Amino acid sequence: MNTLRFTAGEPAVEITRVAPRLWHALDDDRVTGRAEATTRPDGRVFLSIDAWHRSVFDQLVRTMLATLPEPLHTVVDETDHELLAAWREAGLTVRRREWEYVVPTRVTGPALPPPGVTLVPAGAAEDGPLREVDRVVRAEVEAAVGWHEMPAEVLVRPGDTIVDPTKYAAAAEDGEYVGLIRVVQVTRLPRIGLVAVRTSRRRRGIARALLVHSLGVLHRAGIETASAEVNEANEAATALFEGLGARRANSTLELVRHGR
User: Fold this and answer.
1) What residue stretches are annotated with the N-acetyltransferase domain (predicted)?
2) 55-69 pLDDT per residue, tens
3) How far apart are CA 35 and CA 21, in angstroms?
4) How many other C-beta atoms are found inside a 10 Å radius of the C-beta of residue 203?
């Protein structure tokens, strides 16, 4: 738990815009804080500030809010109480919570896909059908709750979200892919970045089979746990992961300041 994010003191700083969406706080030409605004592929603008002093944070955030069009977003570890309070005092409010799960790779219980469904291991999925099912499930999510309700993902470019097909396993039925899962390893702890099944094929155990399959691959490689992020409001995903023994390790809040 980070209970002392900001150090004491009120340094006199000058806020300088060094790029269209990048600001520095300068104290006698020494950088004492940085602020940046980044646009995600879905169009949302997210703010981030790195400052040791609360007064520097406040000056940077005021500059950003006065310059950028709203709505504006940020994400904060829920246990970082000082940072959360600073963003709230700047006028941002909590929009949603994402749970970070630690998922054991050793799973007991049913693991087979339903009859007629075949699992295609990561690295063996065909590129065209994989991209097609990715487009379909994203369109279905967008038409329902909206893709902005899914865990935040950093994508290389809009419109083509599968950057590395070898990271995906798929579920095939009747000659087409009906579900997919992505597992990436950005640190020593692999991350389950996406589990998705076409709307017409849900509630048959395909998502569970994909997840158990991928966890089994990790387990056989000597990896005991993986991580996953789940929107608190996504009851189906929460039940899926907790049903496999996943435990909540942390939570992240997304905050937003709406246009006036």
Assistant:
1) 117-260
2) 999 999 999 999 999
3) 8
4) 9
Helix (H) or strand (E) holding 86: helix 81-89
Q: What is the pTM of this model?
A: 0.80
Please compute the mean of the pLDDT values over residues 90-109 and round it to a whole number.
92
pLDDT in tens, 34-63: 999 999 877 889 999 999 899 999 999 999
Structure token pair of residue 200: 């017409």
Strand order in the sheet with 22-27: 14-19, 22-27, 30-39, 45-51, 72-77, 247-257, 93-104, 225-231, 191-197, 176-184, 168-173, 118-120
Bridge partners for 93 per DSSP: 256
Residues found in the chain: 260
Question: 44, 43, 11: which is closest to 29 by C-alpha?
Answer: 11
Beta-carbon contacts of 159 under 8 Å, excluding residues fewer than 6 positions away, are none
Strands (DSSP E) contained in the chain are 14-19, 22-27, 30-39, 45-51, 72-77, 93-104, 118-120, 168-173, 176-184, 191-197, 225-231, 247-257
- For residue 39, the one-letter residue type is T
SS3 labels along 146-162: CHHHCCCCCCCCCCCCC
User: Taking 70 as the threshold, does the pLDDT of residue 77 lie above it?
Assistant: yes
Domains of the chain: 14-91 (3.40.630.30), 101-251 (3.40.630.30)
